[in-house]
Design brief:
It is built from seven helices and nine strands, in the order H-E-H-H-E-H-E-E-E-H-E-H-E-H-E-E. With about 200 residues, the protein is of the alpha+beta class. The strands form two sheets. Strands 1, 2, 3, 4 and 5 form a five-stranded mixed β-sheet that branches. A hairpin with a 2-residue loop joins strand 3 and strand 4 (about 80-85). The N and C termini lie far apart (about 40 Å). The model has no long low-confidence stretch (mean pLDDT about 90).
C-alpha cells in the first residue's frame, strides 16, 4: 500500500496506558474499541467497509488522562489496565495527540493472574506469544466481530474476559461451534493467515 493510499484508509485508534499490565490492558483495549462503536455516531460504515483496521499506541498515564477527555473518546479501566478507544479516522487526518504516540515496542509486564469479569458473556482467547500491542489489536478484532454477529444494542455491554492461550489451544477453541475466528494478515509479528484470537460466547 502506498503512502497516499494509506492516508485515506480508515482506522480506529486505540491508546493504552504504558503503565498497565499485559492481559488487563488487552481486555481494556477490546472493550474500549467496541464500547466506542456502541456509544456514538461516526464514520463506522466507511470503516466497516474495509478490513476494520486498528492502530494501538501507548501513552503515559497523564497523556491517557488528557486523551480520555477528548470528544469521541471512550475510556475503559480494568484491574491493571486502561485504554481509550476513538471513532475511526483516516490515517491522514489522525489527530497529532494520537499520531505522535509510539506504536512499536508496546509490550507490557505480564500479569501474574488475571481472571477478568466473572459476569462476562464472551471469552476472547488470544495467543500468549503476541506482544501487548499486537494482542490488543487482535482481541479488539475478535470482540468487534463477535459484537457485530451478536447484533448488540447500544446499551448491551459485551462484558468480555480475555484469556491467554497457546497456539495449540487456540486451534482447539477455534473449532468450537459459533467461535468467531481472527486470522492475521501477517504484516507484523506473525505469518499470514495465523490464527491470533477467537471469541466464544460463554
Amino acid at each position: 500500500m502506498s503512502r497516499d493510499d494509506r492516508s485515506t484508509t480508515w482506522v480506529q485508534p486505540i491508546v493504552v496506558d504504558a503503565r498497565g499490565t499485559h492481559t488487563a490492558t488487552v481486555q481494556a483495549a477490546a472493550l474500549a474499541s467496541v464500547r466506542c462503536w456502541q456509544s456514538q455516531d461516526g464514520p463506522w460504515q466507511s470503516w466497516l467497509a474495509g478490513p476494520f483496521t486498528k492502530t494501538v499506541r501507548r501513552a503515559k498515564p497523564s497523556q491517557v488522562d488528557a486523551l480520555a477527555k477528548e470528544p469521541g473518546a471512550t475510556c475503559v479501566t480494568t484491574d491493571g489496565g486502561r485504554a481509550v478507544g476513538f471513532p475511526p479516522v483516516q490515517y491522514g487526518n489522525m489527530p497529532r495527540t494520537v499520531s505522535r504516540l509510539q506504536v512499536s515496542g508496546t509490550n507490557l509486564a505480564r500479569d501474574a493472574v488475571f481472571a477478568g469479569d466473572p459476569a462476562s458473556r464472551v471469552i476472547v482467547a488470544v495467543r500468549a506469544d503476541l506482544t501487548t500491542g499486537k494482542a490488543c489489536a487482535q482481541a479488539a478484532h475478535a470482540l468487534f466481530a463477535w459484537a457485530l454477529l451478536a447484533d448488540l444494542a447500544p446499551d448491551d455491554d459485551p462484558l468480555a474476559a480475555v484469556s491467554l492461550v497457546s497456539a495449540q489451544m487456540i486451534d482447539r477453541i477455534a473449532a468450537l461451534r459459533h467461535a468467531v475466528v481472527i486470522r492475521d494478515k501477517g504484516l507484523t509479528e506473525v505469518d499470514p493467515n495465523t490464527l491470533t484470537a477467537v471469541a466464544v460466547t460463554r
